[in-house]
Design a protein that fits this description.
Ribonucleotide Reductase Protein R1, domain 1, OB fold (Dihydrolipoamide Acetyltransferase, E2P), six-stranded mixed β-sheet, 25% helix, binds guanosine-5'-triphosphate, binds zinc ion, Rossmann fold, alpha/beta, 3 domains, 7 helices, 23% strand, binds magnesium ion
Amino acid sequence: MDNIIAKVIRIDLEIYILKVINNDNDIIAAKLRGNIKKSSNVLVGDLVEVEKVDNDYMITNVLERKNSLIRPPVSNIDQMIIVVSVGEPAPDFILLDKQIILCMAKDILPIICVNKVDLQDDNVQAKEDIEYIKSVYGKLGIQIVYTSTVKNIGIEELKQKLIGKTSAFSGNSGVGKSSITKEILDLSHEEVEIGNIGRKSKRGRHTTKAVRLYSLDENTFILDTPGFSSYELYDIDHKKIREFYPEFEKCKCDYDDCMHISEDESVCDVKRHVKNNDIDQKRYERYVYIFLKEKEKYDKRYK
Ligand SMILES: Nc1nc2c(ncn2[C@@H]2O[C@H](COP(=O)(O)OP(=O)(O)OP(=O)(O)O)[C@@H](O)[C@H]2O)c(=O)[nH]1
Ligand SMILES: [Mg+2]
Ligand SMILES: [Zn+2]
């Protein structure tokens, strides 16, 4: 029998739920053939070859990936919808900056989605956060969409940006990734797990436990992913982080290897731009924080 090509849409322990793409659109459940069990990690988003042996489907090969991420664990994506919410939880800007760095490093288009904008009316901090994101990240040329699943704001605009692409939602727990996915796909509540922000903790509670791939049409895939509270820049050299800051590009530091950290303002043009408010002071401070953390890990690696 001919080989079947399928896309991994969900992984439940050892069972891989696949959508067959080369002849029909059947959904099948498959297992991994022994020989690839350890050597390659299968991710949601992967294209795989499948063989039917008696009545069982076996994944025999993972096709070459365009890209892959560890967090969220997805592959073959075109863009990442980085969701932050205002109100609860409030934006974690270090997490946002790290996700942007990772997108830039992996050549994945970042789109910022600011969710829960309905809360800005009676929340001054929420309003300020929206203004801050607009002025700082908008200036970097990153697309930003403002959404509310409660008031149906921005959902259609975001949906248009997803058409014809494979997009992964990413962001900390409770920001509304699953709620937005549900609205865009017009799914029922049972089909998507949505968290209840408890009155006690008011925090997201890692409602989505595993990555799930949904399709809007045959060329449009949306991956809902579990939220995270910490985020590693796992395979990026700390000395390269500066290359993923678009606002540093215009700066002409005296030395090519200037990290814009301990260098003096007289030789570091980034520091001069920060001083003149051409570069956001807070984003620069987060850069220093992220750089030093990564450097510390690097320095400790053999100890
Ligand atoms: N006010 C307001 N609340 C929202 C909005 N979107 C989602 N929520 C609420 O935020 C909470 C978390 O939503 P989820 O969609 O489960 O969040 P998530 O990002 O998928 O969270 P994890 O699966 O844990 O990563 C739920 O109580 C939603 O009802 C919004 O636009 N406005
Ligand atoms: Mg979720
Ligand atoms: Zn510099």
